[in-house]
Amino acid sequence: MSTTSIHSDVSHLDDERAGQERFDQIIAEDSRIEPRDWMPEGYRKTLVRQISQHAHSEIIGMQPEANWITRAPSLKRKMILMAKVQDEAGHGLYLYSAAETLGTSRDKMVQDLLDGKAKYSSIFNYPTLTWADVGAIGWLVDGAAIQNQVPLCRASYAPYGRAMVRVCKEESFHQRQGWEILYELSNGTPEQKAMAQDAVNRFYGPALQMFGPPDDDSPNSKQSMAWNIKRHSNDELRQRFVDMIVPQAEALGLTLPDPDLKWNEERGHYDFGELDWDEFMSVIKGNGPCNVQRLQHRREAHENGAWVREAAAAYAEKQARRNQDAADRHLIGA
Ligand SMILES: [Fe+2]
Ligand SMILES: [Fe+2]
After folding, report:
1. Could you report the per-residue pLDDT of 205-243, keeping only the tens digit for each?
2. What is the 38 CA–ligand 1 centroid distance (Å)?
3. What pLDDT is stored for residue 11 in this prediction?
4. pLDDT tens digit string along 25-81?
5. Rounded distance from Cα 7 to ligand 1 centre (Å)
């Protein structure tokens, strides 16, 4: 080994050490890491995984609701639902952009999704059988998303936190529109009320599972909390969610499908029954009712959209060339 390369190795180690110290200090002060800051490889990988999974969930999550756009019961409902589904596309795009600042290209992330290598929230592998499901998704699924995402606005990785601020504002509109759909149905005909109840029965358990496995089975959570990415444990968030929706269900006049659900005076929280974690694992592994359909649909949409991506790239290239020509002319003219 030459002396130069020994020197460069030593200075590289010094840089690493200084970087780690600076990183630890930023985390200890609860400040934020920006893309150009040094960060441990594990932190970068965890964020790419989490943010890209989050982006994929937003994109795949458009499907169950888009399924009802053409059959929304009124023009007003159709407009609201279209706006909501479009918001989810926007969330996916901010999140892909946030993940790209960590050095992974959007093409690679999208390809991993299409190849079935990347995960997304397993709730979207359930079908939307009736119009009331659109209400249940808004109320329970977007509601759980808010519970998860509000603390992420303070995530230590700044681009992720910034994306979450805007996403959360839109999610609260989503939750209210879902609640309002269920409220109307619950106060409608007996058939409509039964439809609302059936939707809540099917989405309640999977919505509670959106917070992830119980803390004891969630080995990565501790590290994410130490890095100030995650602020509360899965079980803590799940408890908060249950405490929030019980009075909301009462106001709706609907029942949450859990016989063990009751107020615990001592804890100051609602107790609730064990969730079906075998089902959860099976859906994650690809065996949910709609896993195959969701990916198939996404692949087709990706292929059908190829000409749009090509046209956008050609247009961007033409614009860049024109700008360059104009700049050259300006230089010559000057
Ligand atoms: Fe969203
Ligand atoms: Fe949403």
Report:
1. 999 999 999 999 888 888 999 999 999 999 999 999 999
2. 30
3. 79
4. 999 999 999 999 999 999 999 999 999 999 999 999 999 999 999 999 999 999 999
5. 49
Where does the chain have alpha helices with state H? 3-28, 41-60, 62-66, 75-100, 106-114, 131-136, 142-149, 158-186, 190-209, 219-226, 234-252, 277-282, 291-304, 306-333
Which residue type is seen at 90? G
CA of 124 to the centre of ligand 2 (A): 12
Q: Helix 41-60 to helix 291-304 angle, to the nearest 10 degrees?
A: 90
CA of 10 to the centre of ligand 1 (A): 46
Q: What are phi and psi of 157, to 5 degrees?
A: -85, 110
Nearest to 203 by CA among 129, 93, 291, 106: 129
Q: What distance in Å separates the CA atoms of residue 145 and residue 198, rounded to the nearest whole number? A: 21
Residue 3's contacts (CB-CB under 8 Å, 6 or more residues apart) are: none
The CA–CA distances, whole Å, from 109 to 155, 224, 298 equal 21, 21, 14
